[in-house]
Amino acid sequence: MNLILLIIIMLSFVVDAFAQSPKLYDFSVIKEWINSSAIFYYGFSPNRGQTNKEALIYSKGPGFNIYLTKKGLTFTMFSAVKENPKSIKTENIKEEKEHIKVWRIDYDLIGGNIKKENIIFEDEIENYYENYYTQYAPDGILFIRLYRKVRIKEVYPGIDWILRYDENGNFHHEFEAKPNSNIAQIKIKVKNAQIELTDEGKSVLLKTPIGIIKDGNLIAYEGKKEISVKYTIKDNLLSFEIKDYEGKEKLLIDPHALVWATYYGGSGDEGFFYYKDISISTDANGNVFVVGWTYSTDFPTYNPGGSAYYQPNNAATPDAFILKFTNSGVRLWATYYGGSNDDWANSISTDANGNVFVVGGTQSTNFPTYDPGGGAYYQGTNAGYDDAFILKFSGVTPISIPESFISSIKIKNNQVIVKLNENINSEFNVFTILGREIIRGRINNNEISFKVPSSGIYILKVNNKNVKIVVK
What is the pLDDT of residue 149? Predict the structure, then answer.
């Protein structure tokens, strides 16, 4: 996607009711905004009415939400599921719909003491805030700041509980104890998940019907010295077993990162070639690619729009599949790939330009091929029962440019003026939050100027190479 600049201006939400032309809709712009929105989430905010009243702190994580209550932590996990309604058929093709499954896991601190007045917010995310408009607060809950780190003091005598996001957007929860504190006080009761210890007690797997949370890579430091630590389970309570703790310096217990591992598949069998992890790869931006094969006719697919290749249906069993996720687990692309016989993908890789390469095997005589011309090798027919296949998909490599690329944004009387630090000779488009294009124009002397008909959320798109910037 040729998207260089994506600016979201939050004045207040308004229904899409514009009379200006052109009256075009581009839903790929909205998909791009949704897929990019996870970059906003890596922070904690005080609850001022924007979420459940039981929550003291709220955070929207990649694939899950986090709530701190007086009892402990609550995680709500999300999984997109496709189903075929039995009653809807058109020319023998069932209409598919996608819905979201939600699962809740509670981390209750047994004997703990979580008080609102003991919560300290640290490491504020600069130049960013969120506004919420709900039926209960039509005038808005405004200017809610986000913080990368929260300390809850004295959850047990001498022990603080720390919640934070690291530089990669991974969520951590840590216990920090003063010298000679009683670590045996820490007991966590996990609700709504099956608990299993793994990695010799260094990790906990929390199994649910829609996915697995791994709370793992447990480490502990007394001062700067790493000491031995592992999880234990007794009477369905999680606690820590620590060796070599002298009690002379501050102790930090860090489960390192909370990572969500989700099931992915349909009602049939799925698999991948696991030798040396060649069925999974990443690109320069940390996006994750996975390939394999599936016998499912209801394998969860996702069309990213634009010119991306997309095959929504299984042409035979098995078909190859190709998946793409962001590093934080947001699904970007999921497609079948195959013909009317057996097809399977073994390996995937990317290059420095973000191009994606897939190899595997096929028995199909109608396997989807493409001749790019220009002297490229091309074999358009199956020469034998089992043929190899080679696929290449074009990629987009976003260029990392700091937000200083934009020198200023001014809004007055619905007039928006965006000044840039670099000369871009290009058109710009303005869309409503529903994807309706309302304004087209050209950048003039490093300045973008337009007037919107009313308050709202707008997306400004500028086409030039492959750069994307989000301004909060």
Answer: 94
Task: Report the sign of the C-alpha dihedral through residues 141, 143, 149, 150, in that order.
Answer: negative
Confidence category of residue 153, pLDDT binned at 50, 70, 90: very high
Buried b (16+ CB within 10 A) or exposed e, 96-128: eeeeeeebebbbbbeebebeeeebebeeebeee
99-115 pLDDT, tens digit each = 567 889 999 999 999 99
pLDDT value at 272 more than 70: yes
Find, among 182, 189, 131, the residue nearest to 154 by Cα.
Answer: 182
Strand-pairing partners, residue 391, are 358
Which helix (DSSP H) or strand (DSSP E) does residue 27 occupy? helix 27-36
CA dist., res. 115 & res. 186, Å (int): 17
Is the pLDDT reported for residue 464 higher than 50? no
Q: What is the 3-state secondary structure (H, E, C) of 256-290?
A: CEEEEECCCCCCCCEECCCHHHCCEEECCCCCEEE
Cβ within 8 Å of residue 305, ≥6 positions away = 27, 28, 31
Span 276-310, pLDDT tens digits: 568 888 887 778 899 999 999 989 888 877 678 89
Q: How many residues does the chain have?
A: 472
Instruction: Give the Cα separation of 371 and 378 in Å (integer).
Output: 6
Cross-strand partners of 325: 288, 331
Query: If pLDDT is split at 50, 70 and 90, which confidence band does 24 have?
Result: low
Tell me the C-alpha to C-alpha distance, in Å, between residue 117 and each of 11, 70, 143, 186, 397. 32, 11, 21, 21, 46
8 A C-beta contact, residue 358 and residue 280: no
Q: Could you tell me the CA-to-CA distances from 119 to 14, 70, 114, 116, 251 in Å, in that order? A: 35, 11, 8, 6, 20
- CA–CA distances in Å: residue 296 to residues 155, 264, 299, 300, 306: 48, 11, 5, 9, 26
Sequence-distant (≥ 6) Cβ neighbours of residue 361 within 8 angstroms = 343, 344, 346, 386, 387, 388, 389
Cis peptide before 22 (omega within 30 of 0): yes
Task: Quote the DSSP letter at residue 371.
Answer: -
DSSP state of 376: -
Q: What share of the chain is helix, strand, coil (3-state, %, to 5)?
A: 5, 45, 45
Contact 94, 88 (CB under 8 A): yes
Closest by Cα among 137, 133, 145 to 12: 133
382/138: higher pLDDT: 382
Residue whose pair of structure tokens reads 């809709």 in the numeric block: 25
> CA–CA separation, 113 vs 107, rounded Å?
14
* Cα 368-373-379 angle, rounded to 5 deg: 45
Buried b (16+ CB within 10 A) or exposed e, 170-189: bbbbbbbbeeebebebbbbe
